[in-house]
Amino acid sequence: MNFKLDQLKMLLANLITSAEKIKAKKTQLISDKHNISVVKPTFKTKELAKILDVDESAVLSAIKEINDNNPDFTIERSSPYNKAPYVLTYEDCLEITKELGILSLQQRREKGEEIECKVISVHNGKGGVGKSTTSATAATHSHFDFKNRPKTCLLDGDPQGTLSHLSDEEIRSSEDTITTIMADNFHVPRDVRLSNEKQSEYRAKLEKLMIPHKLGSITILPSLSVDKFFVVQYCEAFTKYGVPEATLEGLTEEAQSQAHQDSLDKVRNQIMTVFKDCIIEPLKPLFDQIIVDTNPDTNLTTLMYLYASTHLIVPVTGRSADIDAYKSFFTVLEMLSENMMPDDCGLFEVRSLITLNRRQPKEIDDNANKIMMNMNCFSAKIQYSTAYETASEKGVPIHWLERKRGGAVSPALEQITKFYDEYKLWLGWE
């Protein structure tokens, strides 16, 4: 009998029994407290003109052309009066954009313009700094980018699955997960992985996993609970590589050491590239951007995400503990990259984003300003806002929340718009 193990089992059983006795009082939701409704956003002609980067007169002319010549589509004014302003729905905006002849990213690519799918990882080695909110916000604001109209894949790289609530559908049951697809292909040579046949096979498996976002231009590739065991399978794959003893016979000590290093390099490159080859590459033909919401650990899995990425956003707050973790993150990332990252890493753009910012206590905003002075940052600072919590509680994009005068939603959206204006330039869309 294992006395210590029995003691542990008894301790855990008692803790479980005690925990069951805790009857927590239900806390009041932010959304209930502020009584904010869910509404589909509408746009003024002036707002659409700014998004499309055209004169408002061009938008008004397009509306007249549609109403005069398209019997199947009518754009309504806010009231029956002839001079009443137009209230544009999402569908209205798309129709106007089409009438103006503004090409989407996909259409520009089809005409020969070199616009590659961008892969944006959102990561910091600490939790609670707004990674998932940043990922979701970048994706949802892209939906309302009527000029570029990007198709977005929101890839949930966090096994907690924080982004799945943004879909009206349940996660689908499938024999394959992101983890199984990668684990099954650890040992497949890269040239085989990247063949048309294999890419089509991976793409078909991934499409079975995808669920639609509430916004039609976005698709969610969710993580599943089993994905948290990926690191175990990753490490197991490492143990299966080595140099046979017979191969080492007759070699000098230096040659044997080099043989072991070559074997390690081989397995490193073979396994570190599997996420890019088997998950990202098959998705690229389907999307204009793939946004990867990572978990807070900075480990080998993180490096696989970064190896596959073209851009990295590092959310950070002005809280002193978060800044300490932020500085450590780059040190750890450098160490892991030097030892584990394959030479052909595609990541070439890194920017920090101030999140959850507060003007009080003053030290938080001061710290945020110091980060912006010393690091490559977006100039937009995302302030703490109850609007994000409300959107999360209601399971909707923040853009769907009612915009009350003096409320939290409009200021939050103004900051998001400022961030996105920089974001699309950063990606090279404009």
From TrEMBL:
Species this protein is from: Vibrio alginolyticus
Residue span(s) of domain AAA: 118-338
Keyword Disulfide bond on entry: no
Keywords from the named record: Plasmid
The protein, known as: CobQ/CobB/MinD/ParA nucleotide binding domain protein
CDD domains the record matches: ParAB_family
InterPro entries given in the database record: AAA_dom (IPR025669), DNA_Partitioning_ATPase (IPR050678), P-loop_NTPase (IPR027417)
Signal peptide from the UniProt entry: none
